[in-house]
Specification:
By secondary structure, this protein is mainly β. About 0% of the residues lie in helices and about 55% in strands. Strand 22 and strand 23 (about 290) form a beta hairpin. The radius of gyration is 18 Å and the shape is globular.
Length: about 290
Amino acid sequence: MQGPPLPPLILKTPPFAHYGLAWSPFHTNRIALASAANYGLVGNGRLHLASVAGGQMVVDKQYDTQDALYDVAWSEVNENQIATASGDGSIKLWDIHINELPIRAWHEHTREVFSVDWSNIEKSTFVSASWDGSAKLWTPDRPHSVLTLAAHQACVYQALFSPHTPSVIGTCSLDGTVKIFDLRRPQQLSGGQPPLATPALTTPSSGAEVLSIDWNKYRPWLLASAGVDRSIRIWDLRMVKPVEGEGLTVGAVGGVCENELRGHEYAVRKVQWSPHRADLIASASYDMSCRM
């Protein structure tokens, strides 16, 4: 018989509100936190490097930035490098052995970058999502994006590679939906524009803004979403219904909510499954707390 569940580990860093977090793919007890002053509305940002020690979460190192940081992703090939998404529309690459300044920067999005994610299969590729309605694919050795997706008609808060299929990306938006894109079926625009992808699946996740999603690392069909309604939802994406358009199948609608987790006092800005356990999930909220 199992005992009562353990209380969550909590790390508070006022006056910086946590916007994003990422588990290190190399170290089981290390995470990075993207934070912003004044809830990201105005002011600077801070990248926190934290670890679990002695039953507590502690800050090991931090970097200050001129603009708010909204998301963070560890490199899948270098244990010391971290990419961040910034309020000034830029993406920056940091090395934890170098103090103060990033080692690279890209600036192509026309509005705030709210998400960055490194593929764990195609390890040289990462994807960003922006308030300009697009998601973009990048490689660190190229000065410009490789591919642009027209993800939503509203702000895109996150774009995330499937950890099981490198050609599949999930996105979430202000419009309250989660969309799944398959990069193996791009569409070309006229005028030589970058390719766009038609969503393979749309999940009406919430009546409110969906701020974050994450794929389960062990169950390919399982995805978590979280947002303004303060809850975390666990979705089974196997239950879908095809949608027909002009005689052709243009996508599908579906997904079944398996579980709903509550506890945060304000909107949940980031949710992420542990890369080391199938049943462990972490969240970061505007209530200035991080929960596991």
